[in-house]
Design brief:
The complex is a heterodimer of chains A (215) and B (290). Chain A has nine helices and no strands. Chain A is mostly helical and 215 residues long. Chain A has two domains: 87 residues, Orthogonal Bundle (Rna Polymerase Sigma Factor, Chain: A), CATH 1.10.1740; 91 residues, Winged helix-like DNA-binding domain superfamily/Winged helix DNA-binding domain (Arc Repressor Mutant, subunit A), CATH 1.10.10.10. With 290 residues, chain B is an alpha/beta fold. Chain B folds into two domains: 46 residues, no CATH class; 167 residues, no CATH class. Chain B contains seven helices and eight strands. In chain B, the strands form two sheets. In chain B, strands 3, 4, 5, 6, 7 and 8 form a six-stranded mixed β-sheet that branches. In chain B, strands 1-2 form a two-stranded antiparallel sheet. In chain B, a hairpin with a 5-residue loop joins strand 1 and strand 2. Chain B is elongated, with a radius of gyration of 26 Å. Classes of the chains: A mainly alpha (215), B alpha/beta (290). At the A-B interface, helix 2, helix 3, helix 4, helix 5 and helix 6 of A face helix 1, helix 3, helix 4, strand 4 and helix 6 of B.
Chain lengths: 215, 290
C-alpha cells in the first residue's frame, strides 16, 4: 500500500489521476500544505458518522473529530503503511471518541437528543413511526458501554465489515463479534416495543400492518 | 436445558461464539422452543433496526470548523522552523488518548458569532449544547464580540474556498437591518431551512434551526415576502422576534416564527397567516444565567 506507486502529481490537478491516500499522507509529511486537507475531506463524512453515532452528541462528536484530525495531522510521520490510511484515520477517530466516552462515564449522562438525528430525520421522507423508531434506537444505543457501542455502531449501524472494525478498534474479530452480540442482547428489551411495528420502508403500503395491536 | 436461553447467549450463539457443548444445547433447545426462537429472531431485528437509521451528513457548521482548525494547524506548521512536534515513540494510530495540545483558536461549535445581531433586536439567543437553548430579553452581558474572530482566518484556506478571510460568511445569513421598517422584524434571522416541522417536535426543531442559523449553517433569506412580514408583525405583537423560517409544517408550506420573551414561544403559521401550531420554548433563563 505504502509502496504503491502513486501517480506523480506535478502538474495541475485535473490533468492527473487522483493521488492515493498514502501518497497524500506522504506529501503531507514532506511539507505539502494542502495534501492533508485533501485527504481528510475525502474521508470526513464517514468519520463524522462514526464519531456522531458513537458519541451520540453533535458537540462532542465535532470536538472528537477535530482532536482526531489534528492528531492525525501531527502524527502522520508515524504512519508506517501496515494498515490502510483509512483504517489509521478511523482508529484515531474512534479512540478519540472512546476516550471522551470513558471520561464522561463518571459524569451523569447528558440527556440531550441527538440533534443531527433529529435534523436528518426531520428532512428524511419517513413516516412518523419510522422517525420515532430511529430516535428510540439512538436513545437505546446510549445505554451501552463505550466498547459495545463503538462496535455495534460500526458493524450494525454503519455496515463496516467485522474484520475492518477489528483492525480499527485494535481487537480481534472475535472480540468485535462478542461486543456486538452482547450489545444486541442489551438493546433487545429496549427495542422490543418496536417489534410489532413495520420496519422502515421508503415506499410501503400502510395497509399491511392493519391488524397490529400495539399497546 | 431447563428454562429458556437468555438473550445474550442467543446473540453469542448466532455469532458462533459459544463452546461446542453450549452450541449444541442451545441448538437443541431452539428446535423445541418457539419463545426462544422468537427472541433469536428479535435479535436479528435489532441489527436491522440499527442499519435503518439514516447516516448523518456532516453539518456545514462542523465542516467549517474543521477547515478552520486545519488551516490554523497548517499555518502553525508552516510558521515553525522544525517539523511539528510528534511524540517520538508513539506508534502510528496509537490511541489518541493523551490529546495533543489543542489548536490555538478552537471555536465552540455553536459559537456565538452573530449573537450581537440578535442582541440588537433585543433578544439574546443562547445555545447551550445540544438542543437546549435559552431565549431572553437582553439587557446585560451580551456575548463578547471577540468571538467573531474565532474562525481563525488563515491564508491556507484551500479546503474552504468560500470562506472569506474574516470568517463572516455567517453575517450574510442574517436579515439586514434594512428590512421593512416598522415591521418589527428587522435584524432578525430570516432563513429557509427546508425543515419539515412536525407536531410534537416543533419547539425542538425550531431550536435546532435557530442554533444552526446562528452559525450560518442555514440558508438565509434577504427579505421576507410582504405578506409574511405583516403576518410576523401580527404574531409577534410586541415580542422580540428571534427567527423567521420559511419552511414547512407537516409537509405544507409554513412560516415558523420564534419569539423571545419570557417564556419564549414558537409559532407555526400558514402563508395566509392561519395558526397551525405553537409551543412554548423550553430553557428560558434570565440574561447572564449562562
Amino acid at each position: 500500500m505504502a509502496g504503491q506507486p502513486g501517480p506523480a502529481v506535478s502538474g495541475p490537478w485535473g490533468a492527473q489521476a487522483e493521488p492515493t491516500d498514502a501518497e497524500l499522507l506522504k506529501r503531507h509529511v514532506s511539507g505539502d500544505q494542502e495534501a492533508f486537507g485533501i485527504l481528510f475531506v475525502r474521508h470526513r463524512e464517514r468519520l463524522w458518522a462514526v464519531a456522531l453515532r458513537t458519541l451520540g452528541d453533535t458537540e462532542e462528536a465535532a470536538d472528537a473529530l477535530q482532536d482526531a484530525m489534528i492528531s492525525a495531522f501531527r502524527r502522520a510521520a508515524d504512519f508506517r503503511g501496515d494498515s490502510a490510511v483509512t483504517t489509521w484515520l478511523h482508529r484515531i477517530v474512534v479512540n478519540a471518541c472512546l476516550d471522551r466516552m470513558r471520561r464522561r462515564a463518571a459524569r451523569p449522562a447528558a440527556s440531550g437528543m441527538d440533534e443531527q438525528a433529529l435534523d436528518a430525520l426531520a428532512r428524511a421522507p419517513l413516516e412518523d413511526h419510522d422517525r420515532d423508531t430511529a430516535l428510540d434506537v439512538l436513545a437505546a444505543l446510549r445505554t451501552l458501554v463505550p466498547e459495545q457501542r463503538a462496535a455495534l455502531v460500526m458493524v450494525d449501524m454503519l455496515g463496516y465489515p467485522v474484520a475492518d472494525t477489528a483492525e480499527i478498534l485494535g481487537v480481534s474479530p472475535g472480540t468485535v463479534k462478542s461486543r456486538c452480540a452482547r450489545g444486541r442482547a442489551k438493546l433487545l428489551p429496549q427495542l422490543a416495543h418496536l417489534r410489532n411495528q413495520p420496519s422502515v420502508r421508503r415506499v410501503s403500503p400502510p395497509a399491511e400492518e392493519a391488524g397490529e395491536g400495539q399497546p | 436445558m431447563r428454562g429458556h436461553v437468555d438473550a445474550e447467549s442467543l446473540a453469542l450463539y448466532a455469532e458462533g461464539l459459544l463452546s461446542h457443548r453450549r452450541t449444541a444445547r442451545v441448538r437443541a433447545h431452539l428446535t423445541g422452543c418457539p419463545e426462544c426462537t422468537r427472541t433469536a429472531a428479535a435479535l436479528g431485528e435489532v441489527t436491522t433496526r440499527l442499519g435503518q437509521v439514516p447516516a448523518p451528513p456532516l453539518p456545514a457548521a462542523v465542516a467549517t470548523r474543521l477547515d478552520a482548525a486545519l488551516s490554523a494547524e497548517s499555518a502553525r506548521r508552516a510558521a515553525s522552523p522544525a517539523p511539528a512536534p510528534v511524540p517520538a515513540g508513539a506508534p502510528a494510530g496509537a490511541p489518541a488518548g493523551a490529546p495533543e495540545p489543542r489548536p490555538p483558536r478552537r471555536s465552540p461549535l455553536w459559537s456565538p458569532v452573530g449573537l450581537r445581531v440578535l442582541a440588537a433586536a433585543g433578544v439574546t439567543l443562547v445555545v447551550a449544547g445540544g438542543i437546549g437553548y435559552a431565549v431572553s430579553q437582553s439587557g446585560s452581558s451580551g456575548p463578547s464580540s471577540t468571538t467573531s474572530g474565532a474562525l481563525a482566518p488563515s491564508p491556507h484556506s484551500a479546503a474552504a474556498p468560500n470562506r472569506s478571510p474574516h470568517g463572516p460568511a455567517i453575517h450574510s445569513n442574517f436579515g439586514a437591518p434594512n428590512a421593512k421598517p416598522g415591521g418589527g422584524v428587522s435584524t432578525v434571522h430570516h432563513v429557509r431551512s427546508d425543515t419539515d416541522y412536525r407536531r410534537g417536535t416543533l419547539a425542538k426543531q425550531a431550536a435546532l434551526v435557530a442554533a444552526k442559523s446562528q452559525i450560518g449553517a442555514v440558508p438565509g433569506v434577504s427579505s421576507l415576502p410582504r405578506e409574511v412580514t405583516a403576518c410576523v408583525s401580527r404574531i409577534a405583537q410586541h415580542r422580540p422576534v428571534a427567527l423567521v423560517d420559511l419552511a414547512r409544517y407537516e409537509q405544507r408550506p409554513a412560516v415558523v416564527i420564534l419569539l423571545g420573551g419570557s417564556p419564549g414561544k414558537v409559532v407555526a403559521v400558514s402563508y395566509s397567516c392561519a395558526d397551525l401550531d405553537s409551543a412554548p420554548v423550553a430553557g428560558i433563563s434570565a440574561p447572564g444565567a449562562g
